[in-house]
Amino acid sequence: MAFKNARQLRCVPRQQRHQFRTMNKKDFQLLRCLYALDIVYISLTLFAAISNVYQASTQDEIHTPLRSAIENFLGGIAAFSYHIPFCISFFIFLFVSKAFRQEM
């Protein structure tokens, strides 16, 4: 398929290169998906970063068993949430983009 598309390429005359290219509906849907991916990535990795900073700043303190259990639990959730953005892109594209759903 890529070879077929490459064979259909043609040179664009110099006077047509400076024309503005309009974005179609699929382009806007792809941009929406990319923005959604950015928001998910930033929000979930930010939680992991805050958790790491907190653990590094309180590592020299003496912790009660309850506080240690809570910190370990939140640290585990933060580690889990760090890996979610790498797995969720399919679902974001599926739910946000109508064009992607129709190609499935």
UniProtKB/TrEMBL annotation:
Q: What is this protein called?
A: Uncharacterized protein
From what superkingdom does this record's organism come?
Eukaryota
UniProt organism field: Adineta steineri
Annotated keywords:
Membrane, Transmembrane, Transmembrane helix
Q: Where are the transmembrane segments?
A: 33-54, 74-96
Q: Which Gene3D superfamilies match?
A: Rhodopsin 7-helix transmembrane proteins
